[in-house]
Amino acid sequence: MKAPAQTPVEAGGLTIKNMRTFFWLARLRNYHATAKQLGVTQPAVTSRIASLEDELGVRLFSRDRQVVTLTPEGQDALRLCEGVLERVDDIVMRFSGTAEQAGVVRIGVVDTVARTWLPALLNRVQAEFPNIVLEITNESTVELHSMLRSGGLSMSITIAPCDEVDVANTQIGRYAVEWVGSGELVDGDRVYSVEDLTRLPLIGYLANSPPMQLMQRYFKDAIPPGVVRNTTNSMSTMIWLAENGLGIAAIPPQAILQHLRDRRLVIIKAERRFDPMPFYLNCRVRPYSPVVQTVEALVRQEAARFAATQSDGQGTSS
After folding, report:
1. Which end of the chain is more exposed for a tag (fewer CB within 10 A), N or C?
2. Beta strand 178-181 with 266-267: parallel, antiparallel or unpaired?
3. Is 143 helix (H, G, I), strand (E, B) or coil?
4. Which domains does the chain have, with CATH numbers?
5. Are residues 248 and 181 in contact, defined by beta-carbon separation less than 8 angstroms?
């Protein structure tokens, strides 16, 4: 085997840790966000970048006007750095013991996922990878996408693609959506026309949110004024309002199975069916840590497993 070429200078600042810090600062363009992403202090980020710049003998970032941007030399270095980090992650994934993997992975999920197959994912991670900690954030699709862009999340599971250039979006499932309401407000045996539904108070999602767009498509963008009585970005709040007879709501039945069994809510038989609601895994493209890659694989497997248990196309993925 040919021996590696000797470098003229000991590369004390050219470490994987410093290169990964450089990569995240180039992506997030913010020292605070980079420190949060890496789980270190902001001075540590500053020190690592300074050490790398000293080693390379170039300025990687321009810091004029408090804006962090790559210099031409920084752009060239980033391309090389990305390749090195990919190779490092490949080596770790291939030769390290998977059960010994350790780290924190921040995942954002919408309510429907939290109420269905998220517990199975958490149990599996705990059983198979006890040293991996999952930090779960439960918010709306819009908020989760914002957190993903800012570096606050490693990945999110939402009902729309994230329009960030370095985020890969994969549809991992679909849920059926039905109108539901209190048995005191609606007749579970009656078949309701669209016009019948508009005579009932509707519980809507926030304006311009993906689930509200689904509702608008259902009514062909012609929801009569005054029909939507309450709006919320929380499915839990929506369920509570519907339970108490304050309106009907469009909700995936798989997210409220216990409510349906207890007859706290009933599915409304409607002439017009909703289109299935797609769910997406929004995950940053490589390079990223092997721990994140492991969790991403488990997310895909658990989503597929849940889809396989569903009937009538509720959980089919594409």
Report:
1. N
2. antiparallel
3. helix
4. 16-95 (1.10.10.10), 99-165+278-300 (3.40.190.10), 178-275 (3.40.190.10)
5. yes
Q: Does residue 7 carry a pLDDT above 60?
A: no
Strand boundaries in 159-292, DSSP class E: 167-175, 178-181, 191-192, 202-205, 228-232, 249-251, 266-267, 269-270, 277-284
pLDDT at 164: 85
d(CA 120, CA 129): 14
pLDDT tens digits, 110-157? 999 999 999 999 999 999 888 888 999 999 999 999 988 887 888 999
Q: Got the DSSP string for 72-119? A: HHHHHHHHHHHHHHHHHHHHHHHHS-GGG--EEEEEEE-HHHHTTTHH
The identity of residue 313, as a single letter, is G
Give the pairing type, strands 132-138 and 155-158. Answer: unpaired
Summarised one tens digit per residue, pLDDT across range 43-97 is 999 999 999 999 999 999 987 656 788 999 999 998 888 888 888 877 776 666 5
Angle separating helix axes 210-218 and 141-149, nearest 10 degrees: 140
Q: For residue 199, give the DSSP letter.
A: T
Q: Taking Cα atoms as reference points, which of 42, 69, 102 lies closest to residue 289?
A: 102
Contact 110, 173 (CB under 8 A): no
